[in-house]
Design goal:
heterotrimer; A mainly alpha; B alpha/beta; C mainly alpha; B: alpha/beta; six-stranded mixed sheet; 18 helices; C: mainly alpha; 15 helices; ABC_transp_permease (chain C)
């Protein structure tokens, strides 16, 4: 086989997510009253990018065969923080943004420390830390409000050269700066190895704990970038429990759609990004077809249910029933 | 070679797992530029020995000397650092990563802090070439490779670490004959390059071809070391089996060829690439053994009867009537009345944290309850009977079964099935890791159950047991019944010969699916 | 593991507690400590009226946590609690709008709807072997979607039936709220099922080692399915009671019950990995959480502080005795 074929096989999940997204977006823009215009693309990008950041965060943890049910709450918390801090002069805003991102890193590191060094189950541990992060968010914003440096916000949510949505460019930069180095680093590989087979990774002398810890920590950072962007879009901070939960939930859907295995060791954040964009587009399809928006949560729930059930097909290939219980 | 100072020496190494002695003051010394073969039966301590060497297991006592200096290894990585690299029987490859990723996994080449994929690819290609496996593409994912290719990757991975001592634990068990030939070439070249190689194998012909020095292990001790070729196969087999202890086996009844319908019969059973057209029948009162090297389909055969395998072809008949058994609950149903004493009592036979009582009645709950409610008086009576019958030694019925000794745990597993009064009893290596006294009790029990009319199918990795307990033995090889031995034909030599393929058989064809079970 | 520490704590306790599970004993000790702490704020904290009131509030959580415990004992988790609760409440109230027949069937109908959610969970976990965490999140989203469509996104106008209100707020026995009696009955049934029936034994067996349970001839998939169905049904029943308590159902009424129900079970000493735990512990956990909430509200702690303290207390307790064994 030629090299490109292996590359293709490795990227199959990502490419599939990309294809789903393209098809869905084509249907979406073809039926959109305004058609395929820069405005439509910009609005769609801005909505999609938020979920894309959170889905990237989820990917990092899922790769280690863990799960982070607090990503939505980190997202909410950093949104509330940014609505206080990302304001004022350029320098003040810069410090504010740094503080917000630092908080995200810290939240992720706390999750990682509790799960890896505290040896707690990721589900319960991150539900509990999620409650703490939400509490902090509520502390910061008991009622919705605040403001943001609007110049920066408009710059990052507008368009470059009148066509390219700035948020997509930002997403691209984050991929280059966070995801690419992670996936090519030794610790990133350790995270994959630990997710795929922790025993084999241990036997091979891979730094399992450090790899996993880095994954949880960077997940916090990515969720915080998402929270920052939410503030740029809405100009406010809001400690909305339902929205935080929805982002956690949708991040899992996006990860699954993006070809990332929930059992760990397989998949890429790029896939999850397309999964997120596709998921958002599918959700918005209802609008262009003039359905009652009330149906949207149900529609999204059903997509999620179908997405998570897809993995079950591998089950029918299992011929030794004892393998069910691995 | 006698004059050369050893590169690595182990002295007085002991290791216990719970009550079981895996190693007892074992010694070994390894010389650079030679291939050292380790022989021994299953459970003789070979695996534990190399795990100690490779830093996977910490010894309870004893010392290790490398280059004249005493060393200890805290982890496999530490042993690697010292130049000791092991190719384990259970593969240590990461399935979702590529071949190249796996080969450099412990120390990937880096550039600007990131993994240098070009350099990685180059290293991988070199290592694969050295292992004689250039046909494997470095970008292929390990999980997509068949087992024999994975084993070659494992060897390449070991070579990429530039070892001084290379340990191969049954490393050829899954290889095709062509691969074995290639590997032998590689190993001989490595010997020339001055490496010390430790080679663990069941295959006498391989050892004869490769080894310079041999050490035989038995019961956790090294019992003999000799230059390769200085002993005959027969002598080696004697050393491996030993004459230290002899089990007291119950007398076998004179075989009466009853014309009754067999209780359990299989016709042309095939499954995946593990079971190949197996036919057999067992009458009431008969103890039939399954022999052969580990991992030749014996386990799968038992699981097939017990309703665990899907996609089975062929027929299973109970009392002469075809049945389809879709689950263990169907198999243990009174109409079939089958019981399986599984391979691993800790994960398959028992719920270790649960009490002795709960474990004992677990398989018979449907019989002990009315309308789903457990009749505790009936439960107590039956449990008392079983504890008495099997002489289970326990401080009480309400302590966790995990607190019992290995032998008593195994008795609990058997007792929990006897509570259902099964007619067909399948045993998967039931005496592994238990003490001699309990073993003897189990042999007596097996015969008693057979005399009471049960049909018993008994897989053992211990040849003595097969000889002492069985009325007939079926030797499996590559998923097929290779030979059937009955009565006086069941001898060590007959068993070992048909299992090891010593006697003039063609070189074994090792199928892809023949992964060796854990030793 | 920190069992030695707990052994040390337990060693200083009276004999009858020492014999109990250290986690359960710790939970009860925490309850006593909370009551003492509360009594510093207000004398009425130790009055029978207040304690009964607390028990009544606890019983809603208790019913929901009972189902959660069953699922956690299997080594699984049910994250569909929020919308199972809301679905139970809304469907019961909805049935009430259909005349006397509807009113009569309101409670069973609500429970049945929760049970249906549970059955979907159970099929996903037992037969499709989807991780329970994922499938229950998905069914939660679907249930939410269905309810949003049904209610139009607002709190439904239908109100609870008289029977629902009676169950939640009435007094069949003087001085003992009905809700407490219901919890006691459900708790007693659960204890019986767990300790005296073959189903209960199978639950513990599967939670400890599903492989061994399967090879022992247990129909493990059926047991898992039933457990999830019961969990869904009990969540919905909790919702029915809550609707009776508040006279109507509300959109996000279940959100406040997910973390507390898991926390109550886990703080009561049930292993999150399954196979170990007693109902007494869950009772302790439920009361502990309820008292914690009550004290925080007496202290006029805002929602934010409550969430933070919850999370921190749960993580701390888990670190104390809920850790998985070291791998080597």
């Amino acid at each position: 086989m030629k090299d490109w074929r292996y590359w293709l096989a490795e990227q199959r999940g990502t490419l599939l997510a990309f294809a789903i997204f393209i098809v869905m977006f084509a249907i979406y823009s073809a039926n959109h009253p305004a058609g395929f215009t820069a405005n439509v693309v910009q609005t769609a990008a801005n909505k999609g990018v938020l979920l894309a950041f959170v889905a990237m965060a989820q990917t990092l943890v899922v790769i280690t065969a863990g799960i982070d049910l607090s990503v939505g709450m980190i997202f909410t918390l950093t949104n509330c923080m940014a609505s206080w801090l990302a304001v004022g002069t350029g320098l003040e805003t810069a410090f504010g943004v740094a503080a917000v991102l630092g908080t995200g890193l810290l939240c992720g590191a706390v999750n990682g420390a509790i799960v890896i060094y505290g040896r707690l189950q990721p589900i319960v541990a991150t539900i509990a830390t999620g409650a703490v992060y939400f509490g902090l968010a509520l502390l910061l914003r008991p009622v919705p409000g605040g403001s943001v440096n609007e110049d920066l916000a408009d710059f990052l949510t507008g368009r470059f050269f009148g066509v390219v949505p700035a948020s997509l460019v930002a997403l691209f930069v984050v991929v280059l700066v966070v995801w690419v180095p992670f996936s090519r680093s030794e610790l990133g590989r350790a995270a994959y190895a630990a997710g795929s087979s922790e025993t084999a990774a241990y036997m091979s002398g891979v730094p399992i704990r450090r790899g996993k810890f880095l994954a949880y920590t960077l997940a916090g950072l990515l969720a915080a970038i998402g929270g920052l962007f939410l503030t740029f879009f809405t100009y406010t901070g809001e400690a909305a429990y339902a929205s935080g939960n929805a982002y956690t939930l949708f991040s899992i859907a996006a990860v699954v759609l993006g070809g990332v295995s929930l059992f760990g060791g397989k998949g890429s954040a790029i896939g999850a990004i397309f999964g997120a964009l596709a998921f958002r587009t599918i959700g918005d399809l209802l609008f262009v077809f003039d359905f009652d928006p009330l149906w949207q949560p149900l529609f999204q729930g059903v997509i999620l249910l179908i997405a998570v059930s897809l993995g079950a097909f591998a089950l029918f290939r299992v011929r030794n029933r004892l393998e069910w219980f691995l | 070679m006698d004059g050369v100072a050893p590169l690595f020496r182990m002295e007085g190494i002991s290791k216990r797992y719970g009550g079981v002695r895996a190693l007892e003051k074992a010694d070994l010394s390894v010389t650079a530029g030679s291939i050292h073969a380790i022989l021994g039966e299953n459970g003789a301590g070979k695996s534990t020995l190399i795990k100690v060497m490779a830093g996977v297991v910490a010894p309870d006592e004893g010392r290790m000397v490398l280059d004249g200096r005493e060393v200890t290894f805290a982890s496999p990585a530490a042993a690697n650092q010292a130049g000791i690299v092991c190719i384990f029987q259970e593969l240590s490859l990461i399935p979702e990563l590529s071949v190249a990723d796996n080969i450099v996994i412990s120390d990937p080449p880096k550039r600007f802090g990131m993994i240098d994929r070009k350099a990685q690819r180059r290293i991988a290609e070199e290592a694969l070439a050295r292992a004689g496996a250039s046909d494997i593409h470095p970008l292929a994912l390990v999980k997509d490779l068949p087992l024999s290719r994975r084993q070659m990757v494992e060897i390449a991975k070991a070579l990429a670490r530039k070892p001084r001592i290379l340990i191969l634990d049954e490393a050829t068990s899954a290889l095709t004959a062509a691969d074995v030939a290639k590997i032998f070439g590689v190993l001989k070249r490595l010997r020339e390059e001055g490496l010390a190689l430790l080679y663990i194998s069941h295959r006498m012909n391989e050892i004869a071809e490769l080894a310079d020095q041999c050490t035989v292990f038995r019961n956790g001790r090294n019992v003999a070391s000799y230059a390769a070729g200085s002993k005959s196969d027969n002598e080696v087999v004697e050393l491996m089996i030993g004459r230290e202890y002899s089990h007291i086996f119950p007398a076998k009844p004179a075989r009466s060829l009853s014309s009754t319908v067999p209780v359990l019969e299989a016709r042309n059973l095939s499954w995946s690439d593990r079971l190949d057209n197996i036919s057999l029948s067992i009458a009431a009162g008969e103890v039939v053994g399954l022999g052969g090297l580990d991992g030749q389909g014996q386990r799968e055969l038992l699981l097939a009867f017990f309703g665990v395998l899907r996609g089975l072809s062929g027929q299973i008949l109970i009392d002469g009537k075809p049945v389809s058994i879709a689950s263990p609950s169907a198999a243990s149903d009174d109409r079939i009345g089958m019981a399986l004493i599984p391979e691993d009592r800790k994960t398959e036979g028992l719920m270790l944290p649960m009490t002795v009582r709960e474990n004992l009645s677990f398989a018979a709950l449907d019989r002990l309850s009315k309308g789903g409610i457990i009749d505790r008086a009936a439960e107590q009576r039956l449990i008392d009977d079983m504890v008495g019958l099997l002489a289970i030694k326990t401080a009480g019925l309400d302590i966790p079964v995990g607190a019992l000794s290995g032998g008593n745990q195994q008795k609990v597993v058997i007792a929990k099935w006897l509570m259902r009064q099964p007619r067909i009893i399948l045993l998967n290596d039931p005496t592994r890791g238990i003490d001699v006294g309990t073993k003897q009790e189990l042999y007596q029990l097996m015969r008693k159950l057979a005399d009471a009319g049960a049909a018993i199918l008994f897989y053992s990795t211990d040849y003595d047991e097969l000889i002492g307990c069985c009325d007939r033995v079926l030797v499996l090889y590559d998923g097929a019944v290779k030979r059937e031995l009955a009565g006086a034909e069941i001898t060590e030599h007959a068993l070992i010969a048909s299992a090891l393929n010593i006697h003039g058989e063609a070189a074994p064809k090792h199928g892809e699916g023949m992964k060796g079970g854990p030793a | 593991m920190s069992e030695t520490t707990l052994g040390g704590i337990a060693g200083r306790m009276p004999k009858f507690i020492r014999r109990a599970d250290p986690a359960v004993a710790t939970a009860f000790a925490c309850i006593v400590a909370l009551l003492l702490l509360g009594s510093l704020y207000s004398r009425s904290f130790l009055s029978p009226e207040y304690l009964l009131q607390q028990l009544k509030v606890a019983s809603f959580l208790g019913v929901i946590a009972t189902g959660m415990m069953l699922v956690i004992l299997l080594g699984q988790i049910d994250l569909s609690v929020p919308w199972s609760v809301a679905t139970g409440a809304m469907m019961a109230c909805a049935a009430a709008a259909y005349g006397p027949v509807g009113s009569a069937l309101a409670i069973p109908f609500g429970i049945l709807c929760g049970g249906a959610i549970g059955i979907v969970n159970g099929i996903g976990v037992a037969y499709l072997r989807i991780p329970s965490m994922i499938i229950t999140l998905a069914t939660n989203a679907v249930a939410q979607g269905l309810m949003v469509v049904y209610t139009g996104g607002f709190s439904p106008q239908d109100s609870a039936t008289v029977a629902m209100r009676y169950l939640a707020t009435g007094f069949a026995v003087p001085a003992v709220p009905n809700a407490v009696i219901i919890w006691a009955l459900i708790g007693a049934a659960m204890v019986f099922v767990l300790t005296r029936t073959s189903f209960g034994r199978a639950v513990y067996g599967i939670g400890n080692r599903e492989r061994a349970a399967y090879l022992s001839g247990i129909d493990t998939r059926r047991v898992v399915l039933i457990a999830f169905a019961v969990s869904g049904g009990l969540s919905a029943f909790g919702g029915v009671l809550l609707a009776g308590y508040a006279s109507k159902a509300a959109q996000s009424m279940g959100d406040a019950y997910l973390l507390p129900s898991i926390a109550a079970v886990v703080l009561g000493g049930t292993s999150i990995l399954g196979g170990r735990g007693s109902y007494l512990g869950t009772v302790a956990g439920v009361i502990l959480i309820t008292l914690l909430q009550s004290i925080l509200s007496v202290m006029q702690m805002p929602e934010a502080g409550r969430q933070i303290i919850y999370g921190v207390v749960i993580v701390a307790m888990l670190l104390l005795y809920g850790r998985t064994p070291a791998s080597r």
